[in-house]
Amino acid sequence: MKYKYQNCNNIFTRIQISRKTYGVTQKKWTKINVHFFFLGWKTYLKNTKKRVHSIMQQIIEMVVFR
To answer: Which residues of 3-38 are buried (b: 16+ CB within 10 A; e: fewer)?
Structure first.
């Protein structure tokens, strides 16, 4: 669970730095925030699926090839 929030926070800090440099208006800003939040979620879910899949494969290999 901790990983998910860390991932999102990294994205947020990166955006905040860019926000200071470009000076984005507030309305635009919320859109960008939401978009990146969901982007973070998607990458997190994708990574988790991959990890679970690889773990399952390892278990299957251990069971089958012994």
So the answer is: eeeebbeebeeebeeeeeeeebeeeeeeeebeeeee
Question: Are 33 and 15 within 8 A, CB to CB?
Answer: yes
- How many distinct structural domains can be found in the chain? 1
User: Which residue range forms the structural domain that includes residue 28?
Assistant: 2-64
pLDDT tens per residue, the chain (66 residues)?
444 545 555 555 555 555 554 555 555 656 666 666 677 677 777 777 777 777 777 777 777 765
Minimal CA–CA distance to 15: which of 43, 35, 42, 1?
35
What pLDDT sits at residue 47? Answer: 73
